[in-house]
Amino acid sequence: MEQNSNVIISGFKWFFAPRRRSDSPFKRMIIHIILIALCVAAVYPVLRIVSVSLRPGNRLLSTSLQLIPDDATFESFRIVLQKRDFLLWIWNSLLITITTSLLGVTIASISAYGVSRWHFPGRKAGMIFLLATQMIPAAMLMVPIYILSIKLGLVNSWRGVVIAYSVSSVPFSIWILKGYYDTIPVELEQAAMIDGTTRLGAFYRVVLPLSTPSLAIAFLFNFTQVWNDFLIARIILQRAEFFTWPLGLQRMQGQFQTQWGEFAAASLMVSVPVMILFQLSSKWLISGLTLGSVKG
Amino acid sequence: MGALTAQIVRSSLSEVLGTIFAVAAGIVVLELVLYVILKRKLQWRFSLPIMLVSPALIGLLLLVLYPILYNILLSFSNMSLRRFTVERGLTYGFAEAWNNLKIIFSEPVLKQQKFFPVLFRTFLWTFIQVFFHVTIGMMIALLLNRPMKLRGFYRTLLLFPWAIPQIIAVLAWRGEFNYQYGLFNLLIQKFGGQSINWMSDPFWNYVAINLTNIWLGVPFMTVILLGGLQSIDPSYYEAAEMDGAGKLMGFRLITIPLMKPITTPAIILGVIWTFNQFNVPYFINQFELETSDILVTALFRAAFEYNRYGFASMFALIIFIILLGFSLAYIKITKFSFGFDKAGGGTPLQAVGE
Lengths: 296, 354
Known about the structure:
The structure holds two protein chains of two kinds. Chain A is mainly alpha-helical.
């Protein structure tokens, strides 16, 4: 009898430990219930997409709230993957996103080092300028960028988009990276320079490897920004062969009622690259972001 | 419709990579020129940092400053799809600027709604959003900041809305607002209520947009606030406890002031991003109700559906001035310095603690 209750008690201890002495088990239970409810709210809409994507074609518009239908099928995924225009959207998005993110982070990581280590004239004005660029409504740049693209012949070509995307996340990346470089002691570079490398060599061999968390975050932000961009793509890429997935899916959604299942399947597939990146960088997310963007 | 063919792959690959290499080559040339002028000729001690920041600077000037100046020029014109070139009747001048201004404040911005109702709706939207993002985000961050089992698991799930592409999330939510098949009406019916016309009723459409964006925006705020909470040294709370302060008092006297360097920029950015949020109000508003438009979506429609470019440029300028005014006022009121005055490192805590 006593042993039994001991097992139960140690089970409770396992579930609630480690704990603060001041929290009663009841209070901890309440906290867990609140957190579980919030998690359900956070994940549920996405689970519904999963559910729709798994439904067979004749039951797409069901009023059932069941998450995994009894007759689940991957039919919708197969149909979407066989559509060569879906593959085109994915190809376009991947190509443009990977190249411009790499270029953007490279530019930002170099510039942030200059801003972090030297108090050159115009530095403060430059940082304020960076902040001000974040205040400009994207929609405000749309009209001039559109008119300029027409006049420069950049509509329906990759050239203008590549440049615009490479630069668009640079201010945010510089802020993040500069904040992170600031926390790395200069003495480390000086030591490396005594050992015979140049200033830039020290940056490359010492500072950059130490900044992996913030570099990862900057890349993640560049990637998601470009991958998810609708506005710039919408005004510059108008011919179907240039469509990225947001444009393609928007067009697909025009026939929303009929293609609900295919739309859901496509949505899940375009979410995969971003989710993988988030998962890979999740351990750096909080340190990389906080040290960078937030400086008192 | 386009399809993926070998030829398209070849042409897009060569164009994109070609542009990247052209940019890289341009940067190399720029660095060489700067090196020769600054380092060799002038022997300036700041030549290296200038060389480091110049690619980003020039890129931003091209992509941000040049369009802004061009936007100002356009706002002094009567440009529209019909009057696109000077030969077709495009004119610039103060009269055109005055005319654009007059239309914004006296006539409907699109077809029915005038400027001030849209402005009010935008303010209301921004206030609701930032309020809920910060309060719910703070609540979740406080819960997650306690030592407990399954913390990493909760954190992963709670950040989920942030990780999926915004357009996907928004379109999924739009599906849930469907009259017949959407989750919300199904739930309402289950509890015996009347189905709501989320898409065509102006009030409920506005509510739908707000609900969606609260769901989308909370995770980011949670991450930021959680990072701040984790940087607070627990010994502060222990000291306060010894002095007899309760939990609530500790929150008010320790957490809030120490979090200020984190909450201030987070709130400024939150306001700016919400004010400029395009995807949610644009996509949830399936039937293009003007009563759900905020300034940014109204601007987009004025420019790209009504093709009134000169008018839209002036409109954009006014939106920018409103935002700038807000940010300056907020920085002034909270006496926030963004750490410009401090050389080098230090955690947020050290900055406040001195």
